[in-house]
Amino acid sequence: MRVKRVQWAVGQGGFASGSIESEGQYFEYVYDCGSNNSGPLKDSISSLRPKGKKIDALFISHLDSDHVNGIEHLLVQYEIESVFLPYLDNRTQWMVAARSMSESDFTANVGELLTNPGGWFESRGVSNIFLIPPASPEEDYPEGMELGWPLKENDESSGFEEHRDDRRLQLYASENVPSNGQLDKEKANVTILSERASLGLRTREATWAFVPFVPPVSDAVLNEFYRSARSEGLEIDKGTDELAKILSDVGQRKKLKKAYRKISSNHNFVSMCLYSGPLYEQECWGRAYVNNHVLRWRKGPRWLIEEEVFLEREGKVGWLGTGDALLKNHDVLTAFQRRYDFVSQKVSTLMCPHHGSWHNYSDNLIELFDPFVVFAPASTTNGYGHPHPRVRDSIYRYRIPFLHVSEEPESQLREKIEVRHK
Q1: Best mean pLDDT range from 4-8, 106-110, 181-185
Q2: If 322 and its partner were Cys, which of 155, 353, 365, 396 is the partner (CB 3.0–4.6 Å)?
Q3: For residue 119, which phi and psi values (nearest 5 degrees)?
Q4: Nearest residue to 322 (alpha-carbon basis) of 371, 280, 278, 264
Q5: How far is CA 417 from CA 155, 269, 420, in A?
Q6: What's the average model confidence in pLDDT over 263-270?
Q7: What is the C-alpha separation between 144 and 376, in angstroms, rounded?
Q8: Among 248, 236, 293, 231, which Cα is nearest to 108's?
Q9: Beta-carbon neighbour count of residue 411 at 10 Å?
């Protein structure tokens, strides 16, 4: 199995891709597609060039504009088979919409995506939308992961689609997820998976896992937002139709933003994390390229070297995206650690949450995973101070390289990996 990963240089936003090949079959995936720097984002999307001009899975951490405003452009150039994003109940959906308007450039297109993601994607040719609910604060995750059924199957079939492309690798779901998921009866193209759901590619060479995690949302914060919205005259119990009306009215949007700002300091961001990497102990080799230099993977001091080196590493080539997750929060971090404990020794490449924000980062991330490299996607100049110097200094103290992936092409992080059974 051969894997290529790229953290594209798109500036203040996020656009990561992976290409997996095993015995002539392929799987292409993307994690987030957005940026406040539109030029570099469009250039990167055009340079993606997935096999067959098809993306098998698009994972969306959350619906802030700087993480999703490139999806429309992505859909123009490539076919997308399936989309995975956080499931939001009614109150959480309102709160996420309020945050999106407060934190980034808000457009009518993003508003439509927020209020009706299933309809938004279906109208653009995507027929498979999977929602991952937030974790329960005390969720007891399984110690490992067993892949059971193909994620997509015929309603009355033996488990495989009749006309699927044999050149594409099949995505499987873990055994703790029913084979047909939990369907949203009002939206036939939307499947709500379990918060314990894991996904993976099963081949003769290796098993490659995709493990999502949506942080728990505090009931106290939701109730506080509900009261704040009510004080502004907003009736958020009326559902998404009412939310759509609010988002189309400038005056009402101001009220929604005001309601959010009253509670924003306490809000645990609804942002889906994703582990992508080997599931079992296997022989793995990898190289990571930054600005035509190669990042050397070893147990001792890590550094950038100018000559090309190919080092053998066993089992530790996984990647972990964190979106804007508030991993400094104790409850969120605890649930995060429980979710990823069984792959904690497999992560080599770690995304710093929220573009390197000090408010989201915790040293526990380094101690849990002991990664070979940590990176933060952020523009060279932004109004948020990303990535924060205290985050960089904290990571350097662990003698781990910290990479600022900006809008400059030379900051792009590219990785090549080979995985096979022992």
Answers
A1: 4-8
A2: 353
A3: -65, -40
A4: 371
A5: 37, 32, 10
A6: 66
A7: 28
A8: 248
A9: 19
- What mean pLDDT, rounded, does the chain reach? 84
Angle among Cα 281, 282, 283 to the nearest 5 degrees reads 140
Strands (E), 112-265: 128-132, 147-150, 171-174, 182-183, 190-192, 199-202, 207-213
Question: Could you identify the residue written with the tokens 């653009």?
Answer: 124
pLDDT at 267: 56
Going through 342-386 in order, the beta strands assigned E by DSSP cover 347-351, 373-377
The set of residues, in sequence order, having a beta carbon less than 8 Å from that of 176 and lying 6+ positions away, is 142, 194, 196, 197
Residue type, 99: R
DSSP state at residue 381: S
Q: How far apart are CA 133 and CA 87, in angstroms?
A: 5
Local structure of residue 120 (DSSP, 8 states): H
CA gap 16, 78 in Å, rounded: 15
* Single pTM value for the model: 0.90
Q: Please give the distance of CA 318 from its chain centroid, rounded to a whole number.
A: 14
With CA atoms as reference, report the closest residue to 347 among 330, 365, 359: 365
Give yes or no for a contact between 144 and 345, defined as CB atoms under 8 angstroms apart.
Answer: no
